[in-house]
User: Fold this.
Amino acid sequence: MHVVVVGCGRVGSELALRLTGSGHTVAVVDKQRGAFRRLPDDFAGTLVEGLGFDRQHLEQAGIGDADALCAVTSGDNSNILTARIARVNFGIDPVVARIYEPRRALIYQRL
Assistant:
């Protein structure tokens, strides 16, 4: 299974490592190149410096072949937008978005 992980903070990096450790292919997208320092030098996945809601960056991450997407940045709006683009424009299911603000979570559930 190919999974795109958007956000390479504590959650995203740990998720990427666990997924590759389980035999999945993974692409990690983060807007800050320095965030990839959380991954080991021998990380087997693809690293894309960019925005998770930018279609070009998602395509560089292999979204066309993806079986799932996890949007786990520190921004609720970015995560909601990324998840929506993955689901609507690329037909990805399942899609997971980390949401900090409970009111935004209700909006995301309705979408």
